[in-house]
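note to self: dont lose this again. the chain is below, predicted strucutre after it. 327 aa total, dont forget to put it in the shared folder this time
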Amino acid sequence: MIIPVFIPHLGCPHTCIFCNQRTISGQAETGLAAARAQIEQYLHYSKGQTSNQIAFYGGSFTALPLDYQQQLLEIAQEYIQAGQAGSVRLSTRPDAITPTIVAQLQKYQVETVELGVQSLDEKVLRLAERGHGAACVYSAVELLRQAKLQVGLQLMVGLPGQDGVSLADTKEQVCYLAPDIVRIYPVLVIKGTRLSQMYQEGNYIPLSLEEAVAASYELYEQFNRYGIQVIRMGLQADGELCSEGNIVAGPFHPSFGELVFSYGYRQKVNRYIEQLPAGVESIIIEYPPKEESKLRGMHKSNLRYWQEHYPVKIILRRSTTFALKMV
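---
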């Protein structure tokens, strides 16, 4: 189990145009006592065991002063030594990875480092006011690889200046970097951000939900082919983020990942039907039972789409694997 410890905006030398970490994380308190309290809260409701992983999220962990990083890691170490957790993961900026920092992470049993990359397009990074370029992402990944740490990349779809060409280029670069894991987030317009101001002024138009789903699936499909595990799509729908007025605009959905997988099934079936020889009147879709809701689509949206767009009868049949067959 992941034990999340949110350190909102701590360590960040920049405020990106889309970022309001206290709203996104729902955690306003910072500091060592708050970190310990979050761990204790999770352990109160779940079993302490070595399969647990303490995860520092929200800020840029390795941009913190080195001694403060050490103090946080020592708190995690107490729980590891007590057998209530087995390792640590953290998120940070790619320009806050150095040999000295990596050596300290190794010392304190950090297993996974997720880099907030967002894009590998220089123009997009500049417009997002990230404060770094793509080159430092390559350097950071190399340092982490040399230390035999698991590497994660966090990406965003719908950033200002990001078009299909930009997204495709980022996708190819990520495949070249070959991270162990990836998260994909659609850009939301959050209250109190520079992006919110741009939106109100008419200088930014967020993706629609359908556009964000399609863009996310394009990334997911390619990463899946390259053996890169996508561990999350869409922001966690916690109480703070979903409080009235916090999300000003943008493609938010509490089951965003489910929508992406459902869209993927739709695309696969569409391609199959469109390549059928003339005269085929029915097809069978075989699927694992656990995939049924994704295949049918939310509120049976996929089934309705196929009925409305194709003159082919769809027969659903539970099986052990997904397959498409002509009748």
